[in-house]
Amino acid sequence: MKVIFENSTGWILKSSRKIAQCMFLLTAVLILSNLTAVSEAVIAPASYVIYKSGSTIYAQNGQTGSNDYSGADAASVIQDAIDALASGGRICIKDSMTISSSITIAASNIALEGLPGVRLTYTGNDYAIVVGLTGTAVVGVVVKDLDIYGDTNALGGLRVLRPVYKSHFERLCIHHFKNASAWGINVGDGTAYTSINLFIDIFVYDNTNGLRLQTECNHNVFHAFDVSNNTSVNIKIDKDAKDNIFIAPNIATAATGVQDAGMRSTFESPYMEALTTGFSFGENTDKAYNPRVFNPIFTSVTTKYSFSVGVQYIPLLFEKGHYYLKDSVSITESATTYQVTFPTNADMLGSDYYMVCVEPSWNTSTWISSKNSTAFTVSFGTAAPAGAKLRYEVKPLW
Protein backbone atom coordinates (compact mmCIF):
# COMPACT_ATOMS: atom_id res chain seq x y z
CA MET A 1 0.00 0.00 0.00
CA LYS A 2 1.41 3.38 -0.96
CA VAL A 3 0.46 6.91 -0.02
CA ILE A 4 1.34 9.80 -2.28
CA PHE A 5 0.97 13.52 -1.61
CA GLU A 6 0.47 15.39 -4.85
CA ASN A 7 2.06 18.36 -3.10
CA SER A 8 4.57 17.59 -0.40
CA THR A 9 4.13 20.88 1.43
CA GLY A 10 1.63 19.46 3.91
CA TRP A 11 2.90 21.91 6.50
CA ILE A 12 1.16 24.68 4.55
CA LEU A 13 -2.22 23.25 5.50
CA LYS A 14 -1.33 23.13 9.17
CA SER A 15 0.06 26.67 9.00
CA SER A 16 -3.01 27.87 7.12
CA ARG A 17 -5.33 26.39 9.73
CA LYS A 18 -3.34 27.92 12.57
CA ILE A 19 -3.27 31.29 10.83
CA ALA A 20 -7.02 31.14 10.22
CA GLN A 21 -7.75 30.19 13.81
CA CYS A 22 -5.38 32.86 15.15
CA MET A 23 -7.16 35.45 13.01
CA PHE A 24 -10.49 34.17 14.32
CA LEU A 25 -9.31 34.35 17.95
CA LEU A 26 -7.78 37.79 17.48
CA THR A 27 -11.02 39.09 15.97
CA ALA A 28 -13.03 37.61 18.84
CA VAL A 29 -10.70 39.11 21.45
CA LEU A 30 -10.88 42.55 19.83
CA ILE A 31 -14.66 42.42 19.72
CA LEU A 32 -14.95 41.16 23.29
CA SER A 33 -12.51 43.78 24.55
CA ASN A 34 -14.63 46.48 22.94
CA LEU A 35 -17.63 45.11 24.81
CA THR A 36 -16.06 45.03 28.28
CA ALA A 37 -17.15 48.60 28.77
CA VAL A 38 -20.42 48.22 26.92
CA SER A 39 -22.38 50.35 29.33
CA GLU A 40 -22.24 51.55 32.89
CA ALA A 41 -25.94 50.71 32.92
CA VAL A 42 -24.98 47.05 33.35
CA ILE A 43 -23.83 47.56 36.94
CA ALA A 44 -25.73 50.74 37.82
CA PRO A 45 -28.63 50.73 40.31
CA ALA A 46 -32.02 50.40 38.66
CA SER A 47 -33.37 53.64 37.25
CA TYR A 48 -36.81 52.03 37.19
CA VAL A 49 -38.26 48.82 38.59
CA ILE A 50 -41.24 47.51 36.66
CA TYR A 51 -43.63 45.50 38.82
CA LYS A 52 -47.22 44.33 38.88
CA SER A 53 -49.80 44.72 41.60
CA GLY A 54 -53.17 43.23 40.76
CA SER A 55 -53.95 44.26 37.19
CA THR A 56 -51.86 47.41 37.32
CA ILE A 57 -48.27 47.75 36.10
CA TYR A 58 -46.01 50.28 37.83
CA ALA A 59 -42.66 51.87 36.98
CA GLN A 60 -41.04 52.77 40.29
CA ASN A 61 -38.27 55.36 40.21
CA GLY A 62 -35.11 53.79 41.59
CA GLN A 63 -33.93 57.01 43.19
CA THR A 64 -37.09 58.61 44.54
CA GLY A 65 -39.15 55.47 45.18
CA SER A 66 -42.18 57.06 43.54
CA ASN A 67 -44.28 55.32 40.90
CA ASP A 68 -43.68 57.65 37.96
CA TYR A 69 -45.76 55.65 35.50
CA SER A 70 -48.59 53.15 35.86
CA GLY A 71 -51.43 51.58 33.95
CA ALA A 72 -52.95 48.33 32.74
CA ASP A 73 -50.84 48.28 29.55
CA ALA A 74 -47.45 46.81 30.50
CA ALA A 75 -45.77 47.72 27.21
CA SER A 76 -46.85 51.35 27.56
CA VAL A 77 -45.52 51.60 31.13
CA ILE A 78 -42.19 50.01 30.22
CA GLN A 79 -41.89 52.27 27.16
CA ASP A 80 -42.58 55.39 29.25
CA ALA A 81 -39.76 54.38 31.61
CA ILE A 82 -37.35 53.79 28.71
CA ASP A 83 -38.24 57.09 27.05
CA ALA A 84 -37.54 58.92 30.30
CA LEU A 85 -33.90 57.76 30.21
CA ALA A 86 -32.58 59.99 27.45
CA SER A 87 -29.04 59.76 28.88
CA GLY A 88 -29.20 56.04 29.61
CA GLY A 89 -30.08 53.95 32.64
CA ARG A 90 -31.15 50.54 33.85
CA ILE A 91 -34.67 49.11 33.89
CA CYS A 92 -35.37 45.97 35.89
CA ILE A 93 -38.57 43.99 35.25
CA LYS A 94 -39.57 42.27 38.48
CA ASP A 95 -42.66 40.29 37.45
CA SER A 96 -43.79 38.29 34.44
CA MET A 97 -46.34 40.15 32.31
CA THR A 98 -48.02 40.30 28.92
CA ILE A 99 -47.13 43.02 26.42
CA SER A 100 -49.40 43.75 23.47
CA SER A 101 -47.09 46.13 21.58
CA SER A 102 -43.37 46.38 20.90
CA ILE A 103 -40.89 47.74 23.44
CA THR A 104 -38.42 49.99 21.60
CA ILE A 105 -34.98 51.02 22.85
CA ALA A 106 -33.91 53.93 20.67
CA ALA A 107 -31.32 55.59 22.95
CA SER A 108 -27.81 54.53 23.92
CA ASN A 109 -26.66 53.05 27.23
CA ILE A 110 -29.98 51.59 28.31
CA ALA A 111 -30.17 48.20 30.02
CA LEU A 112 -33.41 46.22 30.04
CA GLU A 113 -33.29 43.14 32.21
CA GLY A 114 -35.50 40.79 34.16
CA LEU A 115 -35.21 39.05 37.46
CA PRO A 116 -34.74 35.24 37.26
CA GLY A 117 -37.78 33.55 35.73
CA VAL A 118 -39.41 36.69 34.34
CA ARG A 119 -41.38 36.06 31.15
CA LEU A 120 -42.66 38.63 28.69
CA THR A 121 -45.54 37.15 26.70
CA TYR A 122 -45.94 39.10 23.48
CA THR A 123 -49.37 39.22 21.81
CA GLY A 124 -48.73 41.93 19.20
CA ASN A 125 -48.01 41.52 15.50
CA ASP A 126 -44.48 42.99 15.27
CA TYR A 127 -41.32 42.19 17.29
CA ALA A 128 -41.51 41.99 21.07
CA ILE A 129 -38.34 44.05 21.65
CA VAL A 130 -36.82 46.42 19.10
CA VAL A 131 -33.36 47.91 19.59
CA GLY A 132 -32.43 50.93 17.49
CA LEU A 133 -34.13 53.19 14.98
CA THR A 134 -33.16 53.05 11.33
CA GLY A 135 -30.59 55.79 10.72
CA THR A 136 -29.98 56.65 14.40
CA ALA A 137 -26.83 55.23 15.99
CA VAL A 138 -27.43 53.35 19.24
CA VAL A 139 -24.50 52.21 21.39
CA GLY A 140 -24.13 50.27 24.62
CA VAL A 141 -27.60 48.73 24.94
CA VAL A 142 -28.01 45.72 27.23
CA VAL A 143 -30.93 43.26 27.06
CA LYS A 144 -30.66 40.25 29.34
CA ASP A 145 -32.34 37.72 31.65
CA LEU A 146 -35.69 37.59 29.87
CA ASP A 147 -37.92 34.77 28.64
CA ILE A 148 -39.71 36.15 25.57
CA TYR A 149 -42.73 34.10 24.50
CA GLY A 150 -44.63 34.70 21.25
CA ASP A 151 -47.61 33.48 19.24
CA THR A 152 -48.73 33.01 15.64
CA ASN A 153 -49.26 36.73 14.94
CA ALA A 154 -45.88 38.16 15.92
CA LEU A 155 -42.95 38.67 13.55
CA GLY A 156 -40.40 37.73 16.19
CA GLY A 157 -38.83 38.14 19.59
CA LEU A 158 -35.85 40.51 19.18
CA ARG A 159 -35.27 42.99 16.36
CA VAL A 160 -31.90 44.76 16.26
CA LEU A 161 -32.01 47.55 13.70
CA ARG A 162 -29.15 49.57 12.32
CA PRO A 163 -26.87 51.12 13.24
CA VAL A 164 -26.44 49.40 16.64
CA TYR A 165 -22.90 49.02 18.04
CA LYS A 166 -21.18 47.53 21.08
CA SER A 167 -24.38 46.20 22.59
CA HIS A 168 -24.85 43.14 24.75
CA PHE A 169 -27.60 40.50 24.64
CA GLU A 170 -27.35 37.81 27.30
CA ARG A 171 -29.33 34.97 28.90
CA LEU A 172 -32.38 35.32 26.68
CA CYS A 173 -34.88 32.61 25.87
CA ILE A 174 -36.88 33.43 22.72
CA HIS A 175 -39.51 30.98 21.60
CA HIS A 176 -42.90 30.17 20.04
CA PHE A 177 -42.97 32.87 17.37
CA LYS A 178 -44.93 30.94 14.76
CA ASN A 179 -45.85 33.54 12.14
CA ALA A 180 -44.98 32.15 8.68
CA SER A 181 -42.20 34.74 8.30
CA ALA A 182 -41.20 35.02 11.97
CA TRP A 183 -37.61 35.08 13.25
CA GLY A 184 -36.60 34.53 16.85
CA ILE A 185 -33.88 37.18 16.39
CA ASN A 186 -33.54 39.42 13.33
CA VAL A 187 -30.42 41.62 13.15
CA GLY A 188 -29.91 44.52 10.74
CA ASP A 189 -32.05 46.01 7.98
CA GLY A 190 -29.66 45.49 5.07
CA THR A 191 -28.65 49.14 4.56
CA ALA A 192 -26.02 50.07 7.19
CA TYR A 193 -23.72 48.54 9.77
CA THR A 194 -24.90 46.69 12.84
CA SER A 195 -21.57 45.70 14.32
CA ILE A 196 -19.46 44.62 17.29
CA ASN A 197 -22.31 43.25 19.34
CA LEU A 198 -22.17 40.28 21.70
CA PHE A 199 -24.86 37.60 21.94
CA ILE A 200 -24.14 35.16 24.74
CA ASP A 201 -26.01 32.29 26.38
CA ILE A 202 -29.14 32.69 24.26
CA PHE A 203 -31.70 29.98 23.53
CA VAL A 204 -33.81 30.44 20.36
CA TYR A 205 -36.22 27.57 19.81
CA ASP A 206 -39.66 26.53 18.57
CA ASN A 207 -39.99 29.43 16.13
CA THR A 208 -40.61 29.37 12.40
CA ASN A 209 -37.01 30.56 11.89
CA GLY A 210 -34.18 31.11 14.36
CA LEU A 211 -31.57 33.84 13.78
CA ARG A 212 -31.15 36.09 10.75
CA LEU A 213 -28.15 38.34 10.06
CA GLN A 214 -28.93 40.80 7.29
CA THR A 215 -26.54 42.60 4.95
CA GLU A 216 -23.90 44.70 6.77
CA CYS A 217 -24.23 42.86 10.06
CA ASN A 218 -20.50 42.70 10.71
CA HIS A 219 -18.09 41.54 13.43
CA ASN A 220 -20.71 40.22 15.84
CA VAL A 221 -19.92 37.39 18.27
CA PHE A 222 -22.32 34.61 19.26
CA HIS A 223 -21.12 32.52 22.20
CA ALA A 224 -22.96 29.58 23.79
CA PHE A 225 -25.76 30.24 21.31
CA ASP A 226 -28.42 27.50 21.19
CA VAL A 227 -30.73 27.64 18.19
CA SER A 228 -32.87 24.57 17.70
CA ASN A 229 -36.24 23.13 16.75
CA ASN A 230 -37.06 26.03 14.45
CA THR A 231 -39.22 24.82 11.59
CA SER A 232 -37.34 26.12 8.57
CA VAL A 233 -33.87 27.63 9.11
CA ASN A 234 -31.95 27.87 12.38
CA ILE A 235 -29.38 30.46 11.24
CA LYS A 236 -29.49 32.53 8.04
CA ILE A 237 -26.63 34.83 7.04
CA ASP A 238 -27.41 37.20 4.17
CA LYS A 239 -25.12 38.45 1.42
CA ASP A 240 -22.42 40.88 2.67
CA ALA A 241 -22.93 40.08 6.35
CA LYS A 242 -19.23 39.96 7.24
CA ASP A 243 -16.92 38.34 9.78
CA ASN A 244 -19.53 37.07 12.23
CA ILE A 245 -18.23 34.50 14.70
CA PHE A 246 -20.10 31.63 16.35
CA ILE A 247 -18.29 29.95 19.24
CA ALA A 248 -19.55 26.50 20.30
CA PRO A 249 -23.13 26.94 19.04
CA ASN A 250 -25.74 24.20 19.36
CA ILE A 251 -27.64 23.98 16.07
CA ALA A 252 -30.28 21.28 16.02
CA THR A 253 -33.61 19.97 14.71
CA ALA A 254 -34.52 21.95 11.60
CA ALA A 255 -34.65 21.56 7.85
CA THR A 256 -31.46 23.65 7.51
CA GLY A 257 -28.94 24.31 10.26
CA VAL A 258 -27.07 27.22 8.65
CA GLN A 259 -27.81 28.97 5.36
CA ASP A 260 -24.81 31.17 4.64
CA ALA A 261 -24.43 33.66 1.79
CA GLY A 262 -22.26 36.01 3.84
CA MET A 263 -18.54 36.79 3.96
CA ARG A 264 -16.01 34.99 6.17
CA SER A 265 -18.54 33.53 8.60
CA THR A 266 -16.73 31.47 11.25
CA PHE A 267 -18.16 28.54 13.19
CA GLU A 268 -15.86 27.13 15.88
CA SER A 269 -16.87 23.74 17.33
CA PRO A 270 -20.55 23.77 16.30
CA TYR A 271 -22.70 20.86 17.47
CA MET A 272 -25.04 19.95 14.60
CA GLU A 273 -27.85 17.50 15.31
CA ALA A 274 -31.04 16.20 13.65
CA LEU A 275 -30.81 18.36 10.52
CA THR A 276 -31.70 17.66 6.91
CA THR A 277 -28.82 19.92 5.82
CA GLY A 278 -26.08 21.06 8.17
CA PHE A 279 -24.48 23.96 6.24
CA SER A 280 -26.02 25.28 3.02
CA PHE A 281 -23.68 27.71 1.25
CA GLY A 282 -25.12 30.28 -1.12
CA GLU A 283 -28.63 31.59 -1.74
CA ASN A 284 -30.33 32.45 -5.03
CA THR A 285 -27.45 33.95 -7.05
CA ASP A 286 -25.34 34.92 -4.03
CA LYS A 287 -22.29 32.83 -3.17
CA ALA A 288 -20.81 32.49 0.28
CA TYR A 289 -17.35 34.02 0.60
CA ASN A 290 -14.66 32.09 2.51
CA PRO A 291 -16.87 30.37 5.11
CA ARG A 292 -14.90 28.72 7.93
CA VAL A 293 -16.06 25.72 9.94
CA PHE A 294 -13.68 24.29 12.54
CA ASN A 295 -14.15 21.01 14.41
CA PRO A 296 -17.87 20.44 13.91
CA ILE A 297 -19.72 17.52 15.46
CA PHE A 298 -22.48 16.02 13.29
CA THR A 299 -25.17 13.74 14.73
CA SER A 300 -28.06 12.54 12.56
CA VAL A 301 -27.37 15.10 9.81
CA THR A 302 -28.47 13.91 6.36
CA THR A 303 -26.22 16.25 4.34
CA LYS A 304 -23.35 17.93 6.13
CA TYR A 305 -22.49 20.53 3.47
CA SER A 306 -24.56 21.70 0.52
CA PHE A 307 -23.40 24.11 -2.19
CA SER A 308 -26.75 25.26 -3.56
CA VAL A 309 -25.18 28.25 -5.30
CA GLY A 310 -21.58 27.97 -4.29
CA VAL A 311 -18.61 29.42 -2.50
CA GLN A 312 -16.34 32.15 -3.78
CA TYR A 313 -12.81 31.26 -2.81
CA ILE A 314 -11.96 28.14 -0.92
CA PRO A 315 -14.17 27.21 2.01
CA LEU A 316 -12.20 26.24 5.10
CA LEU A 317 -14.20 23.31 6.38
CA PHE A 318 -12.29 21.30 8.93
CA GLU A 319 -13.40 18.21 10.76
CA LYS A 320 -10.95 17.25 13.51
CA GLY A 321 -8.24 19.14 11.67
CA HIS A 322 -9.01 17.75 8.21
CA TYR A 323 -10.67 19.35 5.23
CA TYR A 324 -14.12 17.93 4.74
CA LEU A 325 -13.77 16.67 1.14
CA LYS A 326 -12.69 13.07 1.65
CA ASP A 327 -14.08 9.70 0.67
CA SER A 328 -13.41 6.02 0.11
CA VAL A 329 -14.59 4.78 -3.29
CA SER A 330 -14.67 1.53 -5.24
CA ILE A 331 -12.53 1.39 -8.38
CA THR A 332 -13.74 -0.50 -11.44
CA GLU A 333 -11.68 -3.59 -12.19
CA SER A 334 -8.93 -2.90 -14.79
CA ALA A 335 -9.33 0.87 -14.45
CA THR A 336 -6.14 2.93 -14.74
CA THR A 337 -7.69 6.30 -13.79
CA TYR A 338 -10.34 7.67 -11.46
CA GLN A 339 -11.80 11.18 -11.58
CA VAL A 340 -13.11 13.07 -8.53
CA THR A 341 -15.53 15.90 -9.29
CA PHE A 342 -16.13 18.50 -6.60
CA PRO A 343 -19.64 19.20 -5.32
CA THR A 344 -21.66 21.43 -7.63
CA ASN A 345 -20.64 25.09 -7.27
CA ALA A 346 -17.84 24.36 -4.79
CA ASP A 347 -15.35 26.77 -6.33
CA MET A 348 -11.79 25.58 -5.61
CA LEU A 349 -10.26 28.51 -7.54
CA GLY A 350 -7.69 26.42 -9.36
CA SER A 351 -5.10 23.67 -9.14
CA ASP A 352 -2.67 25.81 -7.14
CA TYR A 353 -5.11 26.20 -4.27
CA TYR A 354 -5.50 22.63 -3.06
CA MET A 355 -3.54 19.44 -2.60
CA VAL A 356 -4.60 15.81 -2.82
CA CYS A 357 -3.71 12.78 -0.71
CA VAL A 358 -4.60 9.36 -2.15
CA GLU A 359 -4.32 5.82 -0.75
CA PRO A 360 -5.02 2.85 -3.09
CA SER A 361 -5.81 -0.59 -1.67
CA TRP A 362 -3.50 -2.40 -4.10
CA ASN A 363 0.23 -2.16 -4.85
CA THR A 364 0.52 0.53 -7.50
CA SER A 365 2.15 3.84 -8.24
CA THR A 366 -0.23 6.81 -8.30
CA TRP A 367 -0.09 10.35 -9.56
CA ILE A 368 -2.44 13.25 -10.23
CA SER A 369 -2.67 13.38 -14.00
CA SER A 370 -5.04 16.35 -14.26
CA LYS A 371 -6.24 18.96 -11.80
CA ASN A 372 -8.40 22.09 -12.03
CA SER A 373 -11.03 24.05 -10.11
CA THR A 374 -13.81 21.50 -10.66
CA ALA A 375 -12.12 18.07 -10.62
CA PHE A 376 -8.92 16.05 -10.48
CA THR A 377 -7.89 12.69 -11.95
CA VAL A 378 -5.82 10.01 -10.23
CA SER A 379 -3.80 7.68 -12.49
CA PHE A 380 -2.62 4.19 -11.52
CA GLY A 381 0.58 2.54 -12.74
CA THR A 382 -1.02 -0.88 -12.23
CA ALA A 383 -4.61 -1.49 -13.30
CA ALA A 384 -7.11 -1.94 -10.49
CA PRO A 385 -7.84 -5.53 -9.44
CA ALA A 386 -11.30 -6.78 -8.47
CA GLY A 387 -12.55 -5.20 -5.26
CA ALA A 388 -10.10 -2.28 -5.46
CA LYS A 389 -10.67 0.75 -3.23
CA LEU A 390 -9.26 4.28 -3.25
CA ARG A 391 -9.27 6.67 -0.34
CA TYR A 392 -8.67 10.35 -1.04
CA GLU A 393 -8.63 13.63 0.83
CA VAL A 394 -8.54 17.18 -0.56
CA LYS A 395 -6.91 19.93 1.46
CA PRO A 396 -6.94 23.67 0.73
CA LEU A 397 -3.68 25.59 0.50
CA TRP A 398 -4.79 28.90 1.98
Can you walk me through this structure?
The protein is mainly beta and 398 residues long. It has 2 domains: 4-25 and 325-396; 30-323, Pectate Lyase C-like (3 Solenoid). The protein has 2 helices and 38 strands. It has helices spanning 11-35, 74-83; strands at 4-5, 48-53, 56-61, 67-71, 89-93, 97-99, 103-105, 110-114, 119-122, 127-131, 138-139, 142-149, 156-160, 164-165, 168-175, 183-187, 194-195, 198-205, 209-213, 217-218, 221-228, 233-237, 245-247, 250-260, 266-268, 271-281, 288-289, 292-294, 297-306, 311-312, 316-319, 322-323, 326-330, 337-341, 354-360, 366-371, 375-380, 389-396. The chain has a 25-stranded mixed beta sheet that branches. The chain has a 4-stranded antiparallel beta sheet with strand order 1-35-38-33, with no helix packed on it. Strands 34-37-36 form a 3-stranded antiparallel beta sheet, with no helix packed on it. Strand 2 (48-53) and strand 3 form a beta hairpin. The chain is elongated, with a radius of gyration of 25 Å. The two termini are 29 Å apart.
